[in-house]
Amino acid sequence: MLSLNLPLFPVLETQRLILRGQNESDAAALYALRTNDQVMRYIDRVRPKHVDESKAVIQTLNKNFKNGESLVWAIVLKEQPDVMIGNIGYYRTDLANHRAELGYMLLPEYWRKGIISEALVQAVNFGFDSINLHSISANINPENNASRQILIKNGFVKEAYFKQDYYVNGKFLDSEIYGLLNPNH
Questions:
Q1: Per-residue DSSP letter, 4
Q2: Does some domain include residue 182?
Q3: Three-state secondary structure call for residue 8
Q4: Cα–Cα distance for residue pair 33/39, rounded to 1 Å
Q5: N or C: where does the chain have the smaller number of CB atoms within 10 Å of the terminal CB?
Q6: Is residue 92, in this structure, part of any structural domain at all?
Q7: Is the pTM of this model over 0.85?
Q8: CATH code at 80?
């Protein structure tokens, strides 16, 4: 079985970005992301009530990394490495099948600047080249055309459309699944 046990949290760099581990000092930024109506419009999760809940999410993400279950980076600009503007990573892993689910979010003031695509390329390359994933999936709300376009632009293809397969906030929602195969396999 594939392993996600890494000795240190990997730090990745792009031309403009650093992808680094999230720490408790990022809790206010994560809270700002998860309570922003624009960011959460198509991310169907319960929103935190206060910043301590975001701190607990970060603690869980770090625990899950140590347990080899997930790998989620903070997205920061190189000129502001202490200011998290979004995150990207493998939230759900199916290591027995060499597959992981990629998710991402970004503050609206950074939208339409290629930041998610830039981070996505690095995260995908790391997943394929360093972890040796066979495939990467992304689960989006079918109404989220911007996310769909980012995935398609980066080589993902639509694999499935599930009707009312997700229950949140008292209603059933549809899911659209995109996937990318490791070109080296």
A1: -
A2: no
A3: coil
A4: 6
A5: N
A6: yes
A7: yes
A8: 3.40.630.30
